[in-house]
Amino acid sequence: MKFVLITMAFLFPQLLLSQDAREIVRKADEKMRGNTMQAEMIIRTIRPTWSREMHCKTWMKGNNLAMILLLSPAKDKGIAFLKRKKEVWNWMPSLERTIKLPPSMMSQSWMGTDFTNDDLVKESSVVEDYTHTVIGDSSIDNRSCYIIQMIPKPQAAVVWSKVIICIDKKDFLELHSRFYDDEGKLINTMNSYDIKMMHDRLIPTRFEMIPADKKGQKTEMIYKNIQYNNPIDDNFFSTDKMKTIN
């Protein structure tokens, strides 16, 4: 009995930390997503000798439904991506073909950027697919932050073997993230900037994804407009709609 009490006394604080960490991540995720989210954004890919911009629209509903439409450049206009639960499709108007993306492609570059397919369409869930632990505190741009380690659950189909994120304690803003591969090697770092009111909430509006081993290379994602919690019918997120959306 004494051993059980000692064990419980050791484990209980750890359990509380895990629960608190998950709740912090959930609040930060919901802050960016809302119940629904419609946005216009610019994605700027920067390389040592060139750069390019893509203009996109995106629609999200909860954790299971998402659509991304490319508006420019002209050669990519009309390309669309759809997520329904754990399934992801890509519509290529030049080929008049819908392609279902296998899970193995979630770690691949999205449209030649430094973001992965999973970063954009969110096949994995930062709340449900990971175990979360608060491992420290930090300060970013005078904002006090939790440092949270996220380790994938055994059966979760996720891209990263570990993610370290820094979330602002006051407003639950994800300000810094580091992504590691199966060997524990740092692959990408994401920083968040330009915090401002968008629709009804304070959020970062510019994100930089920086590869660890590619000097002078990064991708910026800049939100130009966001609307939260406007009704979107589930039927909007369909493979037929991908072909006609504008």
Number of strands: 13
What order do the strands of the largest sheet run in, or round the barrel if closed?
A: 6-5-4-3-2-1-13-12-11-10-9-8-7
Measured on Cα atoms, how large is the radius of gyration?
A: 19 Å
Biggest β-sheet strands, sense, barrel: 13 strands, antiparallel
What's the N-to-C terminus distance?
A: 66 Å
Mean pLDDT: 90
Overall shape: globular
Report low-confidence residues grouped into runs of 5 or more.
2-17
Can you give the helix content as a percent range? 10-25%
- Beta content comes to over 45%
Number of helices: 3
Q: Which class of secondary structure composition applies to the elements? A: alpha+beta
- Encode the helix/strand succession as letters: HEEEEEEHEEEEEEEH
Molecular structure report:
There is one protein chain. By secondary structure, the chain is of the alpha+beta class. The protein has three helices and 13 strands. It has helices at 2-33, 117-121, 239-244, and strands at 36-46, 51-61, 65-72, 80-84, 87-92, 97-101, 130-140, 143-152, 162-168, 174-180, 186-198, 201-211, 218-228. A 13-stranded antiparallel β-sheet has the order 6-5-4-3-2-1-13-12-11-10-9-8-7. A hairpin with a 6-residue loop joins strand 12 (201-211) and strand 13 (218-228). The protein is globular, with a radius of gyration of 19 Å. The termini are far apart. Residues 2-17 have low confidence and may be disordered.
